[in-house]
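User: I'll paste a sequence; please echo it back and then give the predicted structure.

Assistant: Echoing your sequence first, then the prediction.
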Amino acid sequence: MHRDSEMWDEATCFKPERFDVEGEEKKLVAFGMGRRACPGEAMAMQSVSYTLGLLIQCFDWKRVNDEKVDMRENNWITLSRLIPLQAMCKTRPLYAQLSSN
């Protein structure tokens, strides 16, 4: 459903901005809709944004090898990569000093 070319332009391309739905019709139904919508949706979206921001700010990231990232997905209830992404992270120097004190 979330890669339906009738619903999304360039459905198979990585475009995270398509899920920035403030003021638009919702096409993503991960949190349900209407009366049965998840009451924690706003908190979840903020938590993910905050956590992702911290991971980007505090760490330098590298792939384990030079192969392209395999974007194929598992066909389970939750979306996950067929082959999990392996990455290495290293604390950025400023944050390493702060965390050691």
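The longest helix spans residues 41-58. The mean pLDDT is 79.
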